[in-house]
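Course assignment 3, question 2. Fill in each field.
Student: A.L.
Task: Predict the tertiary structure for the chain below.
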Amino acid sequence: MGTTDRRARSRSQVATERFPWTRHLTADDMRVFTLELEQALHKPTSPQILDATVQEIIAGWRATARIKADPEHYAAALKPTTGDFGPVKTPLRARASHP
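Answer field:
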């Protein structure tokens, strides 16, 4: 086993311990999740931006794991959609910070 494989396995193991919901992700999903998280943590930025970026990555992947945990919901999510679902509502925090 190469060094890269050992690092990937180690990252996945740590992620699974810290984020139990990752058990619903595929091996490829886990690789991408841990890579995105690692890249965000190593990117030079302010603490506020880092915190928001990490929270966004975790929330997105947690939502992915949640939908993949339920085979019926996951199958429905994979079906194509048609039509316009209307306007997207702006989150409260975004509206409060942008007059």
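Instructor remarks: The chain has a mean pLDDT of 84. The chain has five helices and no strands.
Grade: pending
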